[in-house]
């Protein structure tokens, strides 16, 4: 499991608030996290933000 997945699992409640501040068009559904479905979350963020998987990982790691 990657460090990004570990960060999502550990701190996502706090991080999703920061994500929504930075990208105001993200909805609660866009940033919804279900345990074990990190890849699904990453895919939604990629699609919504128009970024690559690596860009999303780097962004999450910077939060």
Automatic annotation (TrEMBL):
Against InterPro entries, the record matches this protein to: CsbD, UPF0337_stress_rsp, YjbJ_sf
Q: Which residues form the CsbD-like domain?
A: 6-58
Could you name the domain of life of the organism this protein comes from? Bacteria
What family name appears in the similarity comment?
Belongs to the UPF0337 (CsbD) family.
Q: Which PANTHER family match?
A: UPF0337 PROTEIN YJBJ
State the protein's name. Answer: CsbD-like domain-containing protein
Q: Which organism is it from?
A: Neolewinella maritima
């Amino acid at each position: 499991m990657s460090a990004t997945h570990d960060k999502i699992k550990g701190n996502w409640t706090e991080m999703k608030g920061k994500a929504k501040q930075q990208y105001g068009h993200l909805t609660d559904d866009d940033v919804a996290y279900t345990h074990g479905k990190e890849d699904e979350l990453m895919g939604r963020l990629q699609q919504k933000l128009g970024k690559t998987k690596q860009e999303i990982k780097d962004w999450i790691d910077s939060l």
